[in-house]
Amino acid sequence: MPSSLELLQGTLDLIILKALAAGPAHGYAVARTIRAASDAALVVEDRALYVALHRMEARDWIASEWGLSENNRRAKYYRLTAEGRRALREKTADWSAYAEAVFRVLRMGEARS
Amino acid sequence: MIRWLRRVLPRWHTTEREIEDELAFHLEQRAEELVARGLSPAEARRAAEQEFGNLAATQVELARIDQLSAQRRQRAAWWGDLMSDLRFGLRLLAHAPGFSALLILTLALAVGANTASFTVLRAALLRGLPYHDPERLVHLWETTGDHRSEASYPDFLDWRAESQSFSALGGYNESDVVVARPEGAEVRVAGRATPGFFELLGATPVLGRGFHPEEDVPDGAPAVVLSQAYWQSRFGGDPAALDSTITLDGRPFQVIGVLPAGFHVAPLGEVDLWLTLGRTAERRSERGNHWVNVVGRLRDGITARQAEAELGQIMARLAREYPASNQGRRAVVLPLRDAFMGTVGPVLVALFAAMAVVLAIACANIASLLLARALGREQEMGVRAALGASRWRLARQLLVESLLLVTIGCILGLAFAQAGVRLVIGALPDSLLAHLPYLRSAVVDRAALGYTALLASGTVLALGFGPIVHAVKADGGGLMGRGPRTTATGSLLRLRDGLIVGEIALTLVLLTGTALVGRSLAELLRLNLGFVPDRILAGRISLSGPRYRTPASQQRFFLDLLAGIRRLPGVTSAGAITNLPLNSGNSNTFRVEGEPEPEPSARLEATTRAVSEGYFPTLGVPLVAGRLLDTRDDSAHRLSVLVNASLAARLFPGGNPLGGRLRLYAFADSTWDIVGVVGDVRTGPLEVPPPPTIYFSHLQVPSTRMALVIRSTLEPGALAREVRALIRDWDPGVPLYDVAPLQSEVESASAVAARRVPLILLGAFAGAALLVAVVGLYGVVSFNVVRRSREFGIRQALGAGPGQIRKMVLWQGAILAGAGIAVGGVLSLGLGRALQGMLFGIGPGDPVALLGAGGLLALVTLMASYLPARRATRIDPTVALRSE
Prior knowledge:
The structure holds two protein chains of two kinds.
Chain A: H1 9-21, E1 25-26, H2 27-37, H3 46-58, E2 62-68, E3 74-80, H4 82-112
Antiparallel strand pairs in A: 1-3, 2-3
Helix pairs in contact in A: 1-2, 1-3, 1-4
Chain B: H1 2-36, H2 41-52, H3 55-95, H4 97-127, E1 137-144, E2 147-149, E3 151-152, H5 153-162, E4 166-179, E5 186-193, H6 197-201, E6 207-208, E7 223-226, H7 228-235, E8 245-248, E9 251-258, E10 273-276, H8 281-284, E11 290-298, H9 304-321, H10 323-326, E12 329-335, H11 336-341, H12 344-376, H13 378-386, H14 391-427, H15 430-433, H16 437-440, H17 446-472, H18 477-480, H19 487-525, E13 536-542, H20 551-567, E14 571-577, E15 587-592, E16 604-611, H21 615-619, E17 623-626, E18 640-644, H22 645-651, E19 661-664, E20 671-678, E21 693-697, E22 705-712, H23 716-730, E23 736-741, H24 742-747, H25 750-787, H26 789-797, H27 802-834, H28 847-873, H29 877-882
């Protein structure tokens, strides 16, 4: 297995929301999307993925519906709600600001050396 | 419960199965992907499961998340429904603002009246006996036949020494004392208590101590205990007050203690100072002198009855030993509660009960109005039931509607309650309030709020009940099809008509009661008093101390003071008398000289008063014959008296007693010349006709206490200041007290006060009942107009004029009102008899009161039916006929 990074709880929610922003998807597809988009750098534990999905559903960020998968199997599809969209926007802004701030600190160290 | 489980459990199963399916799909997809990479299906399956980790634990965790979320959603939905019910209810209320306001106002009045009476009752019952373990406290009396009296001091001492039933016995009494102050003497109420009396009640002095036994003897150290209020007002709450001295009745007393705030002995009213009971030397040994109020604390396990039996044995022994004083005397033991609140308790309980009845009627009334509206909403309910609303949902909506009404009504009611408490307390005369100090501070507190809340929830259920029963029945198809009214509806309507008749009857009873008491009060105030009270200021003076030991010094003081007062500018005349009119007091037995000596039991009795010169002219009492008493009728001259016209007419043929002589048994060796006859004055209670009265000159029968009467053109306050200044110049140790216009003596006469309170209460009840009944009748009649609008439309289309339709509606209201008035009239006659003791100058069937109350009610009920009747004539026939 390639080296992977542990994800913080809030970050997991954020990337799941991002994965669902493109359109409804079942849990497995979400996991695949995240892995592909991060070039397998981010590996989401299956258990953590489903717990996060159900929590966010309870929080009304996402809604679910049973449908048929590509290979004609019954699968549970999740989609963003309006609230979920708003949460995604807010979390993205927060995370970016946070990451930039961290990078600034890190670059400052490089410039001096 | 079972049904609930069945409804909820399958959903859990579904949740769990769905989670299983969801995770199984994930594993399959992963396995398929691995197979595509070349693993065998079995290996792929195993690898997928391994990757996933603990599948079972994940399932449990997801199920828990989903379950909590489902519960939260359910609650949210319930609140959402409730909110929409509330909004719907508010819209309904706002849709008919007049109707809603009427309902809320009725409810608010009823709730307010109830909470007010609860507050007063609670203040009286709970705070009336602010003592430790009050249920074990008893009051002891002596009785002869049916006459109850206080105990004599020696009897009290024997009880205390011999009885085993009490853990403690104490005695109390009261008297006025003159307190010397630098700015002038004042008269204060002093309680007198035995050592241990405060401790017996459970009161501990907050400062210093209670009395010691050696202070309870005639020559013991003079000690005084202060009430909290007096300590605050005179010493500003300074602890240094302890061990200081106060001059009482000319003697220095040492302050030994201060009582806690709120300590009071209800029968005494507001007491400022406490002295020891046993200091009054001359009364200590008199077994025939009954003046000690005895309070006891029963030992554990002993009942009042057992204690009474034991005292009975002691009294039997005392009767044998001291037959002269104790023959036929027994002892009774009553709960202290009865003794302290005997007269007030039942009145308050009756007040409370009456308020409860008003509330019940108001509720019945509002319920019938709501029911009427529910009948009108049959169609709405039917439609909603058909659209799938559950019975419970419909019932809840109706409950929420009544909850809304009740909540608004209660909030308003609490405001009314606070005002009501003030009204009730304001209606009580000061003399009564002095004995019920706790009433002054009665406020609508947390307990009253709780009571109101309880009342409100009961009312919500009671109000919702009728419409709910109706709504729950309402899901049949008959309602949609507007089938015939059910028999249940018919009986509800009859019940409602019965309620209205009952309300009107009760209202008439209360109105008649108000009219009867009001007429009695008017008759009382119209009485010929025998004197002219306006523009007269009265005030009392009490002489004490070494300066006024001799009768001559007392007489000199009053003569000089009256002369000084007469010289004040604005004063027309002034005089003094031992007891003001309308105050009971001294009487003496006498006989006319020359008549045979009667049996002791058949002796004539007359009210006796000592007066100064100027008393009769000041009060405007006419001289009928002879002359008035003046300054010459002193100890150097023959003993002379005046008699009133009643005595003259009764005892002297032709009513001319001049030259006659009286012998008074109290003055065994002297005869008194009758020198004049004066007009009758109501010397005793207001309602009692003037008794035979004999007037002495204060120069021949001296008194240390006299009441001044001053007729002047001055404002009472200014005059009082002038007189006070005059007295201070003469002797600052003499107090002037109870200064008030004589007119207030008339207005505060117990006969007037005893009727004014019930009059105000009855009037308030009658007003509330009238409002409730009118609202009820208005509701019923207007509801029927709505129900019959189709019929009226047809009638109009067939040519009936507005007059005919108006008459039909009015007639319906008149039948209900007439039935109520007839029933109420009969009940009123009964009430009149029950009120007999309170009536004055009129009979229980006084036609003015009966016809007045009946007429007023008839007029008001007619108006209540007239409004809907006018509406009935405005029904547009085309609209009414098209509505179906």
